[in-house]
Amino acid sequence: MKGILMAVVGVASAITFSPAAFAEDFVPGDPEFQVFGDITNGPVSATIGRSGILEGDFTDYYRFTIDQDGTGSGSLSTSTSALLSATDLDIISVMVNGLAATKTLSADGKSEFFDISSVPIAFGVLNTIEIVGFSRGNGSYGGNATFLPNAIPEPATWAMMITGFGLVGYGARRQRWTLKAAKA
To answer: Which InterPro entries did the record assign (predicted)?
Structure first.
């Protein structure tokens, strides 16, 4: 019974003294989220990142809308001089519009790198970059993101495509008529 009581006290004290989890939201123009380029005609690049993250779990959201459809890519990294020191930050996951970035860890475990590419970025909706991690007291991370708009066909391309469909349709119709005449 005494062992169970000690276990309960141990768990209760661990919960009581655990650092609190916190979440932050950032939008373009914040010091943590700088955007460069033309969001209406593309291409766009951005830098994201934070320094001095307090001890504990954290979730950072970078939210943005854009004036055209396209694809995005990006990378994010963190490093420390000494594992488990105040500057050591562990990134658990990086998600862009629900897609997970790929994590690479250095051989000594002091650097983490995430990258993702070909992410669909939608016009007029709230796009989100989500970073989940744990800081040991003074952690930091930084990254970049890029966006390219989808290509829009020019009028000459549309004209050639419509003409091509017309010629295929004419050829199919002409062939059918020729077959009917041959059978008669």
So the answer is: Ice-binding_C
Q: Where are the domains of the chain?
A: 21-153
CA distance 105 to 111: 6
Residue among 112, 133, 136 nearest 54 (CA): 136
Tokens of 13: 């004290």
Q: Which residue has the tokens 């768990």?
A: 11
* CA–CA separation, 80 and 88 (whole Å): 5
13: left (phi over 0), alpha (psi -120 to 50) or beta: alpha
Label residue 89 exposed, middle or buried (CB < 10 Å: 0-12, 13-18, 19+). Answer: buried
Query: Hey, what CATH topology would domain 21-153 get?
Result: Jelly Rolls (2.60.120)
Q: Which pLDDT score, from 0 to 100, does residue 96 have?
A: 97
Beta strands in the chain (DSSP E): 22-26, 33-37, 44-53, 56-64, 70-79, 89-96, 99-100, 102-105, 111-121, 127-135, 139-149
| pLDDT per residue as tens digits for the range 118-141 | 999 999 999 999 999 999 999 999
Residue 158 amino acid letter: W
Count of CB atoms situated within 10 Å of the CB of 50: 21
